[in-house]
Fold HAD-IC family P-type ATPase.
Amino acid sequence: MTNPVDDSPAPVGKTINELSVSELSGLSEREVIKRRAAGEGNTAKLQSSRSYRQILQENLFTVINTIFFAISLVMFRLGRFSDGILVIIVIFGGVLVNIYQESWAKHQLDRIALLNRPKATVIRQGRERQIDPSEIVRGDILLVRAGDQIVVDGQVVGEGRMEVDESLLTGESDLIPKHTGDPVYSGSFCVSGTACYEAQKVGSETVAYKLMAGARMFRRSLTPLQVEINVVIRIFMLIACFLWTLVGISYLSSSYSVNEIVQRFAVIAGLVPAGLLLAITLAYGLGAVRMVGQDVLIQQANAVESLSNVDTLCLDKTGTLTTNQIHLQEVYPIGISEAELRERLGDFAANLGTSNRTSEAIAAACPGQKRYLKAEVPFSSARKWSAVAFDDADRRGVYLLGAPEVLLTTTGLLSADMTDYIQSGVEQGLRVVLFAYSPNPTALHADEFLPQLPSELVPLGILRFSDQLRPEAYETLAGFAKAGIRVKIISGDNPQTVAALAKQAGLSGDITVISGAQLAQMDSAQFAQAAQSCTVFGRISPEQKAMLVRQLRKLGSYVAMIGDGVNDVLSLKQANLAIAMESGSKATRSVADIVLLKDSFAALPRAFLEGQRIRNGIQDVLKLFLVRTFCVTLLIFAIALVTDSFPLQNKQSAIVALIGVGFPTMCIPIWAKPGLLPRRSMVRSMLHFVIPATLTLTLVALLVYLFYLVVAVLDLPPGATLAQVNHAIPRSALVAILVMGELLLIPFLKPPTRAWVGGEPLSGDWRYTIVALLLLLLYLLIVAVPPLRRFFELYPLDPIHYLFIGLVAIEWCFILRLTWRTRFLDRFLGIDLR
């Protein structure tokens, strides 16, 4: 892609891009006002998140909420107002918390969208001006440079040239060259070059409007953890439906009252662990609040969950490990004097229409003057070189700056001293580039628009650039290692340079280096092996970078990608988690899930650990939910089979759920510790804890229920029938053993001492045990206070009975610990936890 202009002389001191801008004066303010009044403004609003109405609908009108609401209405009709109110408080109280959390998230997402909304550079009355895209009108002339987003549909005008990434619209990663007369579409990005385009379609008329509106809306994408939890909830929904069917049949075939049937419906509905989603929401909300103080801006709802799953982090050298503050350290002239080399370098940098950090460093060290510019090829990561063509007497020819191995394909071999100079710079972690020359000013043309390297280049000099490591780089890489995360550095620079900088930054382990040229020669199997085993990838094109990220995902890794340049957009979109620097291009910030404010690279290890902490806490919560739900489900079947009765009333089930599971789950995610979990199914990994606890607690609870049922039968007066048995006694005993058993599971879940180690490794944290003791005291307070006891429909058992049930619960603890430590059920089920 060259930038040809007319052969007529141009005013000295103007580059091709400045010529384009000056010749395109744009609209006047009067024309802008007139067109906006005529409805030709870019006023269509892109919704950045769900509306409050959508949030209310999605949280209120769910299947489980409808069921509970129907049950509460029936209870009100039967005069059981306290039961109806309890259902509303327990279920809809959680819904209200969820609505508040998501409304807060909407507010944050809207604020983020406003802060990161791309600005547009418009030319009006011959002057550049930064405006909000909503101020654009049809006919405006807009200027785009590398990294800028194209915000409305239009057509390229003037003499500029650029390469555009339209993958957000087409899904294709190829860069599309654009020149005068070519169409451009909103949602695409300028990757290299500079050009102007005229706005032809604005607002809702743009081709990409619907696509971009959908892309910017709140994404209701479920995280891996939520997917597995949804499976669990749906399984219990099926079980609940099955039990409801059985209860309905029993109502038709027996003499149960409507009140009894409704009670059973309510207890069965409580088996569905709807509180799990609330626990996840609260845990994620807490994590988001903690990350705000760490300069980590969450742009997608699933970013926290993604952080907890990341095991591979891909990053670029420039802008992440280094500060991207490049300085020209020294030059090595070839065939000319150093003064002459610096003069030509100065002219090269002074006439580039699209500058970058390297050309800026040259311009700072080597002053130059404007020349008659015939053509320009902007730098791109795919080409790895840039060029300008002069056509005047003093500086006629093409000057190129790029990777030595690329330019050497047409310059021939360098001397041994020159090669050693390049290699020594690479080993020091310096950026080394070659400056070359061709006397033919038209040598860049392959055809009208595509650039090519001149066939015979003359090397003029070798340049060394230093790039300072970020002060926090060493500590950050150590933090990644602590979090159990592999680091892979993928860069367009020389692989040996990148490896040297990685070692300086403290990247531990054996660093295996590979180049993009080597990858290009590999078949798919070799490429997959290299992606898995290599640490540093150098001279990588944007397409190869995206392929590496995609390959790592295919190999089972959960990949996070950090980028700051336009060349990182393709790979960011391939990653499980896309992370952008705040100072990076608009393109990278637009596609990122997380933006590192203040370019705070050091915040990432803490953010990863936070994500792991949240996931581990949620898994602990799920274990308690599963034990409680499985246990009550089995008791319903067992007690119905043995005694033809139902184990619990609605309020009794509620107190078991609240004290045994509900209140503990408020603390467990907060105190959870980080750590990378084994890469296997979450449900499978919990079988070791859940199945022994469920089966043993169900058996003990059933025996306690039957024991007190026998006691209630023996207490019947002479002549009474079994139908007159007071089921409040065995039900109250069942509530007591379930509450005590579930609370005793908490020290097993987080063992404070080795005596409690069985189902889980030693925690040493006494806070969980203290919470369990406090909740036990709360339960004893409820049974001791008559109004509270009557509200929950508990029978006033004597203190000796609670002591007896407590001793049974302690004996159950020893049995459960023995089951865990002998791994009897694990071996029977074939569960391998190593």
Summary: The CA atoms of residues 105 and 301 lie 8 Å apart. The mean pLDDT is 80. The chain has 33 helices and 21 strands. The chain has five domains: 19-38+119-216, 53-116, 221-288+608-829, 292-321+470-604, 328-464.
